[in-house]
Amino acid sequence: MSDTARQTVEVPVATGDEDRYRLRMGPQHPATHGVLRVDLELDGETIVACDPQVGYLHRGIEKLAENRTYAQALILTDRLDYIAAMSNNCGFCVAVEKLLAISPPLRARYIRTIVNEMSRLSSHLLWLATHALDIGAMTVFLYCFREREMLLELFEELCGARLTFSYPRIGGVRQDVSASFISGLQHFIDIFPEKILEYETLIDTNRIWLKRTVGIGKVSAEEALGLGLTGACLRASGVDYDIRKHQPYDAYDLVDFEVPIAMEGDSYARYRCRMEEMRQSVRILQQCVDQLPPGPIVSEDAPDLHMSQRIIPFREARVSSYGTALIALSHKTKPTYPSGDIYVATEVPKGELGFYIISDGSPRAYRMHIRSPSFIHISALPALSEGGLVADLITNIGSIDVVLGESDR
Amino acid sequence: MHILILLFYIVILFAVVMLHVAYATYFERKIIGHMQVRMGPMEVGWHGLLQPIADGVKCFFKEDVIPENVDAFGFRMAPVVSLAAMVGALAVLPFAPGWVIADIDIGLLYIFAMSGLASYGVILAGWSSNSKFSFLGGLRSMAQVISYEIAMGLSLVGVMLLSGSLNLTTIVEAQSGTFGGMYIFPQIIAFGIFFVAMLAETNRVPFDLPEAEAELVSGYSTEYSGMRYAIFFMAEYVGMLVMSALGTICFFGGWSGPFAVPFFPALWFVLKVYAFMFVFIWIRATMPRYRYDQLMELGWKWLIPLALANIVVTAVCKVLF
């Protein structure tokens, strides 16, 4: 190097900013649970700024719902949180039932509670599987899938589908449960508590797991409320709020269960909360199986039976064929539905899933907004992760349990 | 003539080790599979026995992708450096009395040198790939190897003190060929340190940070594909073999066993190495991954002081008794 060249080289004064660089994690990344993109500003491996970007899975579900009758819009809710589609179905049905002032019969409410809790278990199992895989424990992943498979097989027996069920319907459920379903469920209830212990043996007693989760992504109760966290994320911060308990729907006021609370608000607390929730879910399932009352499974007022004029000839046959579903293909219907707006929230595995429906008296929603917990939890990601390491971001994404189908709608 | 015989031995050793590498991947998949209530490879050949061959052929015939903005020279060199260094380390390993290609007096140091050199390949790959994920992987690997090389070196100082030699054959012979003579007993702490450092040196779970798939996609090898990727893979497995062999030689009495095996004196050595490999795989199926700073903490705050203390105690005991 010549002298002149040497003079022109300017050594930057280290203020700290020069060491920073930007890293775009996702949308194709093994640990972002779908198509989440996180724009990171890093200083070494420390996260200086974290900016989550969503929208890669946007399908316009809210807009599509405006062009369909309530009964038809039900199938859209399957595509929200596809890990726990049954919970979304139930949430939507509960909201529309409240709007239309329909009350489902008791048996239907119990069956819905059963499928809700099964769906909570299957969602929590997938969460545990992927969360553990993110932290590097790959065996837990397959153990969880082993049990999840049992649940999916039960779902398949119940309604023929494993992913998008559309099993509940406004005013009840579609098919009655069979005796073999109940015995299969009872078998699952019997063996599952042992399996939870098995996961805990693999994870809870492991020092590395504790080091990776304790104190990571800490959020206080005030912060959690301010960020709008719900579900297990909120309860792990010490806020006792569970919609199943505080605004019961379906049969939750008829069964006895506890709401697990942790005070620490870190990833480990969220993990503990969900593990205890699984135990409570098993308890609820057992009670539902024991108490399941006889009777009809769908309300006489179910709108998908008379939403269209064309369906009326079938109404006479309805009484004898409760088990079969008839979905209206209505285009012109007289406004016989209540108008106004309503917000109904239910406790889905991820948190509080709310449906805000504006009705103008037609059988379609004038506007339907979905308050999805995943979207709000993703927006809390910077608060959890900034100042931590890249590895902690992965732990946090896992521990807030997001699914992008629900976030992007 | 002597050189020709030596070359013949080298070719045999290389072929045997490569075959072992191929089937180490197969056994890893099978063992982890059975630990995870699934079958592992079953399709190619009887119980998937030809799977490693199929994988090798597939990797060999894949398109050789060199991304546009990489430093092509470094990118091409990195896997070669990794594999060559690791294979080089095989030269000093005594598999049985006299079964060693280069019986040099500084065998132990030579292995350290080679395994340190192999990490250059990883760093070079991370650097030349021109991808931030690879770069982070390379950085992590650099920090990890520096920290754990020290811990590993110090942990083996006790063995050197006891045997009074750096020659691997002498170390084995110093363990007197009996069960009670194995250095695992007087050097149990050193073995613990060596074992942890060994996992870190070979980038295996729970220290697989350079290729932590959840964070860094695939770390230093993110941009690699086809045969170049396979070469990295081979280097990792040869590294595992070398480290297992080193552990066997320094702590488990090398080739000595309960009775001598005619025709194949290396049997006990091979079995011990297999046992080590099994533990590698077992740990992979069980453990989550450490975080980068926790890894450093473990290395510097626990392993290195403990290794130093072990050296002092060993030296004092050697002088006194």
Low-confidence stretches of chain B: none
Are there runs of chain A of 5+ residues with pLDDT below 50, and where?
A: 1-14, 307-335
Q: If you compute it from the alpha carbons, what radius of gyration of chain A comes out, rounded to the nearest whole angstrom?
A: 24 Å
Query: What is the arithmetic mean of pLDDT of chain A?
Result: 81
How many helix segments of chain B? 11
Strand content of chain A: 5-15%
The number of domains of chain B is 2
Global shape of chain A: globular
Cα-atom Rg of chain B, whole angstroms? 20 Å
Describe this structure in words.
The complex is a heterodimer of chains A (409) and B (321). Chain A has 18 helices and eight strands. Chain A has helices at residues 3-8, 61-66, 70-77, 85-100, 106-135, 138-159, 179-203, 207-213, 221-227, 231-235, 243-246, 267-291, 303-306, 315-318, 373-379, 381-385, 390-400, 404-408; strands at 20-25, 37-43, 46-53, 168-169, 172-173, 339-348, 351-360, 365-371. The longest helix of chain A has 30 residues, at 106-135. Helix content of chain B is 68%, strand content 0%. Chain B has eleven helices and no strands. Chain B is globular. The chains are: A alpha+beta (409), B mainly alpha (321).
